[in-house]
Write a structure and sequence with these properties.
By secondary structure, this protein is an alpha/beta fold. It is built from 9 helices and 10 strands.
């Protein structure tokens, strides 16, 4: 499946990261990172685990403060926001974490209703039901509406986790290792879903992964993070045509042809 990239608005930068640095003690996780993500674009941040990929996501979401540099999200300098402003910004950001983090004691329907109820948005019961059904429809799991998470497969739980973020109609989606622990067929379905979300909800997304197939299928642009710095960014083909031993090693180590 080849990606259509007609919906990207290159005149508008939704995430603007400049000179970002973050260390934990002597461990320099991010060293002078620059990254711009345009409206409607899927950018994949590719790297081995432990390379600071999730630290980057946490800084974007305001869960961590950078040591230096700026991270501007939807026009706001995240590190300078107070709690109330940060909460308002987070309502516009959807997270899909590695574990789907669903509440086991709640049905799928209740899991989806929860973020809307927590957000304090005034919403009628009918509208809530409609939003739940629409989000489940978007991820192809309407039939699971009354099931418990324990009755679903790993791939289905991942989809429900994505549906739960979609119900908030986020402008930005942050996917953290969306295909981790899934078999190739289910991974393929999640990759397709990430592209469908981009098309249908016009989201701007960062996809953090070490899965090359995921990067190839979902990324309008791919940026390789190595030793705390972006080594190369561009289309998947451009990145892997780049003659650098470290990129070649990464490719050889990871890529399993489907």
């Amino acid at each position: 499946m080849h990606k259509h990239t007609t919906h990207i608005n290159y005149d508008k930068v939704e995430i603007d990261i400049k000179g970002l640095e973050k260390s934990f003690g002597n461990n320099h996780v991010l060293k002078n990172i620059d990254l711009q993500v345009h409206e409607g674009e899927n950018v994949v941040v590719l790297g081995r685990s432990g390379t600071g990929k999730s630290v980057l996501i946490k800084i974007i979401a305001g869960l961590l403060k950078p040591d230096a540099g700026t991270c501007i999200v939807l026009g706001e300098n995240v590190a300078e926001l107070n709690r109330k402003e940060l909460e308002a910004l987070r309502l516009k950001i959807g997270f899909s974490f590695q574990s789907s983090a669903l509440y086991d004691s709640m049905t799928v329907s209740e899991n989806l209703a929860f973020p809307l109820q927590q957000s304090g948005k005034k919403i009628t019961r009918q509208q809530l039901q409609k939003d739940i059904e629409e989000a489940l429809e978007a991820v192809g799991l309407l039939q699971a509406i009354n099931q418990l998470p324990s009755e679903l497969s790993g791939g289905q739980r991942k989809r429900i986790g994505i549906a739960r973020t979609l119900i908030m109609r986020p402008e930005i989606m942050l996917y953290d290792e969306p295909t981790a622990g899934l078999d190739p067929i289910t991974s393929g379905e999640i990759n397709d879903l990430i592209n469908e979300v981009q098309q249908q909800y016009h989201t701007t997304s960062i996809i953090i992964t070490h899965d090359l197939t995921c990067a190839k299928e979902t990324g309008d642009r791919v940026a390789v993070l190595l030793d705390g710095m972006f080594l190369k960014s561009g289309s998947f083909e451009e990145v892997f045509a780049y003659h650098d031993e470290r990129i070649k090693n990464f490719y050889d180590y990871n890529f399993i042809t489907s």
